[in-house]
Design brief:
Layout: H1 2-59, H2 65-87, H3 90-93, H4 96-137, H5 144-162, H6 166-182, H7 187-215, H8 217-306, H9 312-343, E1 351-354, H10 355-372, E2 376-381, E3 388-391, H11 393-409, E4 415-424, E5 429-436, H12 443-446, H13 458-464, H14 470-480, E6 486-490, E7 494-502, E8 504-505, E9 522-526, H15 530-542, E10 546-550, H16 553-563, E11 567-573, E12 575-576, E13 579-580, H17 581-590, E14 599-603, H18 610-616, E15 622-624, H19 629-641, H20 645-665, E16 669-673, H21 677-688, E17 693-697, H22 700-709, E18 714-718, H23 726-734, E19 744-748, H24 755-761, E20 766-769, H25 774-784, H26 787-791, H27 809-815, H28 820-833, H29 837-846, H30 850-866, H31 870-884, H32 891-914
Parallel strand pairs: 2-4, 9-10, 9-11, 11-14, 14-15, 16-17, 16-18, 18-19, 19-20
Antiparallel strand pairs: 1-3, 3-8, 4-5, 5-7, 6-7, 12-13
Helix pairs in contact: 1-2, 1-8, 2-4, 4-7, 4-8, 5-6, 5-7, 6-7, 8-9, 9-14, 10-11, 11-14, 20-28, 22-23, 28-32, 29-30, 30-31, 31-32
């Protein structure tokens, strides 16, 4: 570790040193480039100054010595400053062009000074020349010729001063020679000619120097030097850009290398993390298997034992065992759900469901817990919320169970209210709120509520228990459904958890049995809780009941005195604070007029001897809290109309389902590969109840050998077995030539993400998770066992659909223990809820949705079995199986289904009107020995 750190520090130091050196060099390039630009700018200034001053000095007509001297001084100062700037740079002064420039500039300054001196000399000679000229012109002997020659001499000298030309110079020289020859004996004239000659020589030298200055060689050199400096600056800037680009590429390379190295390390870490995650998943899967295997036996045999004859104490013990097992199973499921959410493999269903059934299940689940803690649970659904919705009822129920369970757990006194309302209509969002009067949550603790394995504090963990997973999983599930849980809480006051999620109305769901009282009976409801009163009043009022709500016994007695003759029902709460609802019930029983009024007792505290007290005064009707709309209306309907709809419906459905599964699975040849003896016994018991033929093996090797020896209709394969596990056994079975189509259903306690995919990937057809549910097992068998296999099982043969009876009333009544009322309920449900099944099946097929059509056919097949409509059951089952085999249904198939469906509805309608069956509408099942000859 120290060696690696020292190496990293050395590398870091080298990188920093290289960066500093690179930065210094770039800074040097920028400085040189800036200096070159400054030199170029200075050269431009000097160039402009030379041009302007040269033009001024050479182009003036009259200028005093002061102005000329001032201009020359300024120009000299500028040039000296520029020269010092050039000579201050050692690199610059070494250039040949710089040396030439300095020499030219020195010569230029000297020539300017010389030019000025010549001007002064010309002025100096000009004055005696003029005096001598006037003197000669004033001589008496000066004739006209002399005067004209002297004037011409003066005029030519003046012209030469202003603008020198060779012709005029030659004329002047010739004139001077003539005057010298002609007047050599006159000294004044000779002196004048001499002065003219001196002046002429100065003018010629002046103009020669002036012309040389006009050529301005120094300017050409300065321009070349300036361009050289600009070119140098450009080269330095290009070099700087190249260095920056090179540095950027080097930095990019270093960064890319660093990122590559870091990516390598991250990949290694990711690989290690993946291995850890896989190890965690494997551990959870193994633990799930080890826990679910005994749980499967505990829950399964508890359920089977509860269906036998037991005394009250034994039933109570077994009920507690099953309840505790279910609680432990919920904890296991929470841990597995958390793993699924973290891995992103938890998906939501999109199915139709009945919200009222969800609320009924919720109420029944927490009735016992609320009663033990003496807490009242109130479930209130707004009338605006549709009953039939489309979504994931399992995950929605999981969230509600977690939130309500927490609310009850952390509430010592008071109430828990579950309300469902419509947050928005378009698009539809439904709001679920859970309010309690519990201990509340401090504001600084609320941010940690939804973290996994976290509770408010350690003391609460010890006092209230729990794993701390519920809220975390609930939040993630709600987010998957398109919402988010919010919390409002105050310590000592209570908490409010709420969320709203998008939902749609059910696509295929239809309204169930609606209870409505057309004669508007008058009902008295007594409860000390205003929320319960408002809830009951709202439910009953919407059902056509006139409600008198009272919150005390004294007010109830007053209502009885005033409206006793008109009351049709009294709904009384047992514990009314310090009052007892049974006291009022006893008064009504003893009163000559009030004793005819039916009484429905409601309470959340039925454990405290309520039923015994009710029996002592002859009361038999009780509704536990929390009451829901379905439960309340069903009980009121039973008391007012004398019907026990719910009881008969449950009985008819239970008996019909058992007979339905038995008729379809009877004689099915099942191979069970399971190494656990307890699980073997449980699954054998499930299959024995539907008369299936079961062969048991203890490991995968025995399963492969047994499949090679004899045929089976379906194989139940445990995944984790000794000798050869379920996956390898499935692979070997699929390699057999004639075993490709044998359905293999995974039977395992493993429920981790990816387990189902691995099972299907090796050739398995289905997947059942332990603890095994009886209905799940039956439904999976029905999904993969072919109808032809059932017909060829040797136990029972069925006639073709056109030779079978439409309706078998004797079989239906036999299954319902001759209960005609229950049969009428089933028939009415069939007529009201399934009248549009054929249209919905056709519509699904037109929309290219065979899975939807398959579900509808499966439902129709089950309903047909419940009412003993054998022909419709067989036709629907055959079409369902063909759809599962990806076959396309023809119009003839649908016409046959339509014909059988219409015949069945006609028979059911005839029975509901007359109570009798059409003649020859039923042809019974026959065994193989009784088949008609062909």
């Amino acid at each position: 570790m120290n060696k690696g750190s020292r190496k990293n520090r050395v590398l870091l130091g080298l990188v920093v040193a290289l960066l500093l050196a690179f930065s210094g060099y770039c800074w040097q390039l920028l400085s040189q480039q800036q200096q070159a630009e400054d030199m170029s700018t200075a050269a431009e200034v000097v160039l402009n100054r030379i041009n302007s001053d040269t033009v001024y000095l050479l182009g003036r007509e009259q200028a005093n010595d002061t102005n000329v001297q001032q201009r020359l001084s300024q120009l000299s100062a500028n040039l000296d400053s520029f020269v010092r700037m050039v000579r201050s740079d050692p690199l610059l002064i070494s250039f040949p062009l710089s040396q030439t420039l300095l020499q030219d500039m020195d010569s230029y300054l000297m020539e300017l000074a010389q030019l000025h001196a010549m001007e002064m000399a010309i002025e100096y000679i000009q004055q005696p020349f003029q005096l001598q000229l006037h003197k000669v012109l004033a001589l008496p002997q000066a004739d006209d010729t002399l005067q004209n020659n002297l004037k011409e001499l003066a005029q030519l000298g003046s012209f030469l001063q202003k603008s020198w030309s060779k012709e005029e110079q030659e004329q002047l020289t010739l004139l001077q020679q003539q005057l010298t020859t002609r007047y050599r004996d006159q000294p004044d004239v000779i002196a004048l000619v001499q002065l003219s000659a001196d002046l002429s020589r100065q003018v010629v030298a002046y103009h020669t120097l002036r012309n040389r200055l006009i050529d301005m060689h120094v300017v050409d050199t300065l321009v070349r030097w300036k361009l050289d400096r600009l070119e140098c600056a450009a080269k330095l800037m290009n070099r700087f850009y190249l260095m920056v680009l090179g540095g950027a590429l080097i930095c990019f390379g270093l960064v890319a290398y660093t990122l590559w190295r870091r990516n390598q390390k991250l990949s290694e870490l990711s690989h290690q993390t993946g291995l850890l995650a896989q190890a965690k998943s494997d551990f959870l899967a193994n633990m799930s298997h080890e826990i679910r295997t005994p749980m499967n036996a505990i829950i399964g045999f508890s359920s089977l034992a509860l269906q036998t004859e037991l005394d009250q104490q034994q039933r109570d013990y077994l009920g507690k065992i099953k309840s505790s097992s279910d609680t432990l199973l919920l904890l296991i499921n929470d841990i597995l759900d958390l793993t699924k959410v973290e891995s992103g493999k938890l998906t939501l269903e999109e199915i139709d469901f009945d919200l009222s059934e969800q609320l009924d299940s919720l109420a029944g689940m927490f009735a016992d817990l609320a009663e033990r803690k003496h807490i009242e649970v109130i479930i209130c659904k707004s009338s605006d919320v549709p009953v039939f919705l489309r979504g994931d009822p399992l995950r929605l129920g999981q969230v509600l169970v977690n939130l309500v369970n927490n609310a009850i757990k952390f509430t010592e006194r008071g109430e828990v209210e579950v309300s469902i309302s419509l947050a928005s209509a378009h698009p539809m969002r439904i709001r679920f709120s859970i309010r309690d009067t519990g201990i509340g949550i401090a504001e600084d603790k609320q941010a940690h509520l939804f973290q996994a394995f976290t509770q408010i504090d350690a003391s609460n963990t010890r006092k209230y228990g729990g794993s701390g997973l519920g809220l975390n999983i609930s939040q993630r599930l709600v987010e998957l459904m398109g919402g988010r849980i919010s919390v409002q809480s105050k310590p000592g006051v209570g908490s409010l958890f709420q969320f709203d999620i998008p939902m749609t109305q059910a696509v295929y769901g239809v309204a169930g049995r609606k209870v409505f009282f057309e004669h508007q009976p008058l009902v008295m409801v007594m409860d000390d809780n205003e929320l319960v009163l408002d809830l009951a009043k709202d439910i009953l009022t919407r059902a056509g009941v006139r409600v008198l709500a009272v919150n005390s016994l004294s007010r109830a007695r007053q209502v009885l005195r005033e409206e006793g003759q008109s009351l049709k029902l009294a709904i009384l709460d047992w514990r009314m604070g310090q009052e007892d609802g049974l006291d009022l019930a006893l008064e009504m029983y003893q009163h000559s007029q009030w004793r005819r009024i039916p009484i429905l007792m409601i309470s959340a505290w039925s454990r405290d001897g309520l039923h015994g007290k009710m029996e002592s005064i002859g009361l038999t009707h009780f509704l536990p809290k929390p009451m829901t709309e379905n439960s309340l209306l069903a009980k009121v309907d039973e008391l007012l109309n004398g019907s026990s709809y719910e009881h008969h419906l449950r009985q008819a459905e239970a008996q019909g389902d058992q007979q339905h599964f038995k008729s379809l699975l009877q004689g099915t040849r099942v191979l069970l590969a399971e190494d656990n003896r307890v699980n073997q016994q449980l699954i054998i018991e499930y299959l024995r109840r539907v008369d299936a033929v079961v062969t048991v093996v203890n490991n995968g090797r025995e399963a492969v050998e047994r499949v090679a020896e004899q045929p089976f209709d379906v194989i139940l394969m445990d995944l984790q077995m000794p000798v050869l596990d379920g996956l390898d056994a499935t692979r070997q079975i699929r390699k057999m030539v004639d075993k490709h189509d044998v359905p293999i259903i995974a039977l395992t306690a493993s429920a981790m993400p990816g387990d189902k995919e691995r099972c299907l990937g090796v050739g398995m057809n289905g997947y059942v998770t332990k603890p095994v549910s009886k209905l799940d097992l039956y439904n999976n068998l029905l999904q993969w066992v072919k109808p032809q296999e059932l017909e060829q099982s040797g136990m029972l043969e069925v006639k073709p659909p056109d030779m079978m009876g439409v309706l078998d009333l004797q079989d239906a009544l036999k299954r319902l223990e001759q209960d005609k009322e229950a049969l009428q309920i089933l028939f009415k449900l069939f007529m009201s809820e399934h009248k549009d099944d054929l249209w919905e099946i056709r519509s699904a097929l037109r929309r290219q949705q065979p899975d939807v059509a398959c579900k509808l056919l499966h439902t129709l097949k089950g309903v047909s079995a419940n009412i003993s409509a054998a022909r419709l059951q067989v036709v629907a089952g055959e079409l369902e199986w063909r759809l599962r085999q990806n076959e396309v249904l023809s119009e003839a198939d649908l016409e046959q289904l339509q014909q059988v469906f219409s015949q069945t509805r006609e028979e059911v309608s005839h029975f509901l009107l007359t109570g009798e069956q059409h003649e020859n509408s039923y042809s019974p099942y026959t065994t193989g020995d009784d088949r008609p000859s062909q």
